[in-house]
Amino acid sequence: MQKNILIIFCLFVLDFCFAQKSYFDYSNQNIQLEENGLIRMIDDLGFKFYAVTDSLLTTELNENFPSSKLKLLLEGTYEISNKLTHTISHFERKKGPNLDNKTFSGLRENTLLNLQKLSEIFRKKNDILQKLDFQSFTSLMISADVYCEEIISYRRSIRNPYIPLGKNINTQDFSENFDQIRGADGLTDDQWISIMRGGGGYAAPDLIRKTNRENQRKYILLKKQNRAKIEVGQLQDIKTFSNNIDGDIYIYRNLPPQQVSILYTTDNEIIKAVSNWAIFINAGNPTEITNIFRTGIDESIEKDKSPLSNYQINRKFEDHNHNQVALSLYPRNIQLSDTVEKVILMNYEIVFLNQENKPLFLIKNINGDLLERIKYNIMQMRNGITKYDDSLMNLSKY
Questions:
Q1: pLDDT tens-digit profile of 272-328?
Q2: How far apart are CA 230 and CA 227, in angstroms?
Q3: Rounded Cα distance, 57 and 73, in Å
Q4: Which ranges constitute the DSSP H helices of the chain?
Q5: φ and ψ at residue 175, rounded to 5 degrees
Q6: Would the pLDDT of 92 be above 80?
Q7: In this structure, what are the phi and psi dihedrals at residue 127, rounded to the nearest 5 degrees?
Q8: Average pLDDT in the chain
């Protein structure tokens, strides 16, 4: 009797595993994809979302997850996975679970299951194209893909970069993160799993030492290659700029700062980016506002439909001691051709001005001394040597 129960239980577990296999086993991506273009789009999205959220949650991030920007990103992706089923007419629509208290694993799992169910619907219904709102479907798929790209950007900001499977170890992007993803034994997670698969065996210690030595040689070689590129001037974007603004000399010697998302980039990374943009601009580099911000999940502010044209954007930033500032944009002043020409540090705000000296956006004080610390940081950084000081800001990194 006990043997029969055990067999039934094992069959149930195997059935559950196979049901989850399409997205939860990323290694099977190539053999799971269908020739049908729409099914392939859904499966590609499922595999991509699984991959970019894999190995993402740490203990510290889990503790900060309820207030993190990652939660907003996962909620947005989950909502899109629900809406995708609504693009199919005559489909029985069931209300999704309440998102108020959803965890990282809950949001991730439900999103993957929604995409898997959608893929199954497309496989089973021969007349699916007759019932599909194709325009809404493609629009939602594009939005979901951009959410995935935002998650990749988020991972970079928290120093847990996403490394695609099959990424060549000799590429420059990998070299920048290679030292960070190796463990104490000098191996990456994938290398360790490969060696220890099946228990590792008696040769495992020798393989670990050999792989560690190979990794170290590759790491040193990559470092030399990167330095050589800078020394011979192949990275031509790295230049030194300087300019005088109201008697203060601003020097900037680095690559241009990165574009940030007003909604989804972390507090610390936005203030860091805005501080660097202030110095970059004042060092003699007028910059289009579309290079600084992307709004929502838009990659940039589109010419025919600017998200900034319909509402004013205000985002608050609060440090660990509850000092606050706000980032405010002025939609009526913003034209898509506008460039930020100059940044002025005033008593209660930092103002980014266009070519007509009209404010495009500003950082303004709400309470406490956070604004003063941001201005102090900028003044320390304008020599072109001092870098942004995270510890001085005490802002959320999640």
A1: 999 999 999 999 999 988 889 886 554 433 333 344 444 456 889 999 999 999 998
A2: 5
A3: 14
A4: 2-24, 29-32, 37-53, 59-64, 69-85, 104-124, 128-131, 134-157, 172-181, 189-196, 204-231, 267-282, 289-292, 370-381, 390-393
A5: -65, -35
A6: no
A7: -100, 30
A8: 75
Per-residue pLDDT band for 112 (boundaries 50, 70, 90) equals: very high
Least trusted range by pLDDT, from 38-47, 80-89, 303-312, 368-377: 303-312
Q: Are 346 and 246 in contact (CB under 8 A)?
A: no
Residue-level pLDDT at 45: 92
**Dist. CA 49–CA 43, nearest whole Å:** 10
For tokens 């089923």, name the residue.
Answer: 85
289 vs 16, more confident? 289
Rounded to a whole number of angstroms, the distance between the first and last alpha carbons of the chain is 52
Residue type, 255: L
Give per-residue burial for 254-287: e unless 16+ CB within 10 Å, then b. eebbbbbbbbbbbbbbbbbbbbbbbbbbbbebeb
- At 32 the three-state DSSP class reads helix
List the one residue out of 388, 149, 145, 104 whose CA is nearest residue 269.
388
338 and 288 Cβ atoms separated by less than 8 Å? yes
For CA atoms 338, 340, 345, 350, give the dihedral sign.
Answer: positive
Token pair 């319909």 in the structure block, residue: 310
Distance separating alpha carbons of residues 154 and 174, to the nearest angstrom: 17
Q: Is 52 exposed, middle or buried (0-12, 13-18, 19+ CB in 10 A)?
A: buried
